């Protein structure tokens, strides 16, 4: 499927990380974490431009060596814990439109903390969105926990999280639910820039298996991802 609609992919990778020091460039099976996402994006058939948005010179250097564009350093106000991903995306889009005179119909967010997502996942997700004529898409995986089984624990008292629900349902009677795995987000440029959202009214999902849905947030996640890589 030839891509006639321009797609800009953004990898957000700020330098600060509270949970895991230097997370985005920590070595995972002897390779910087961000490299996995860069390589997947570069091997995609549908990404026209790949850019890493970072405030870190060290991350910028690693990203450039891996083949990504780093045309600017991210402004300090977009590199705080409170900075939203949507604002980072909008900053990149405006840069390309004003400085490079390039426009894109679709904007893709690829978080570097999802190293096991591959080029095939990216391409299949993109095709799902294009064929469905949707305005946004997020990658998902099957949820390990159903809300029915969740409980609120306050001052020792345990209560059902879902109020007014039938009790004593069997696990096999519960409907299968899905969670965002953080690996792939795609949105139409107009929806992002004019409506300030990543989720449109015609929103789609792309299902990924558990073994490629690891989201690196701490040391345990890193060890689990390394185990999966070495076991494959």
From TrEMBL:
<dbReference type="InterPro" id="IPR050793">
    <property type="entry name" value="CMP-NeuNAc_synthase"/>
</dbReference>
<dbReference type="Pfam" id="PF02348">
    <property type="entry name" value="CTP_transf_3"/>
</dbReference>
<dbReference type="InterPro" id="IPR029044">
    <property type="entry name" value="Nucleotide-diphossugar_trans"/>
</dbReference>
<protein>
    <recommendedName>
        <fullName>Acylneuraminate cytidylyltransferase family protein</fullName>
    </recommendedName>
</protein>
<dbReference type="InterPro" id="IPR003329">
    <property type="entry name" value="Cytidylyl_trans"/>
</dbReference>
């Amino acid at each position: 499927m030839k891509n006639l609609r321009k797609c800009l992919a953004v990898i957000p990778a700020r330098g600060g990380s509270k949970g895991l020091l230097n997370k985005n460039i920590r070595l995972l099976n002897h390779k910087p974490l961000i490299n996995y996402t860069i390589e997947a994006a570069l091997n995609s058939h549908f990404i026209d431009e790949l850019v890493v948005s970072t405030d870190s010179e060290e991350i910028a250097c690693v990203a450039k060596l891996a083949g990504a564009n780093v045309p600017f350093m991210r402004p300090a106000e977009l590199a705080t814990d409170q900075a939203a991903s949507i604002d980072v995306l909008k900053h990149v889009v405006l840069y390309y439109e004003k400085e490079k005179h390039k426009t894109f119909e679709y904007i893709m967010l690829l978080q570097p903390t999802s190293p096991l997502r591959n080029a095939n996942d990216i391409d299949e997700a993109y095709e799902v969105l294009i064929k469905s004529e949707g305005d946004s898409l997020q990658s998902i995986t099957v949820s390990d926990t159903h809300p029915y089984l969740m409980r609120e624990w306050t001052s020792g008292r345990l209560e059902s999280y879902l109020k007014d629900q039938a009790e004593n349902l069997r696990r096999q009677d519960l409907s299968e639910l899905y969670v965002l795995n953080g690996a792939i987000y795609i949105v139409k440029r107009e929806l992002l820039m004019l409506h300030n959202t990543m989720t449109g009214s015609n929103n789609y999902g792309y299902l990924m298996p558990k073994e490629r849905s690891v989201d690196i947030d701490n040391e345990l996640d890193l060890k689990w991802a390394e185990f999966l890589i070495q076991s494959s």
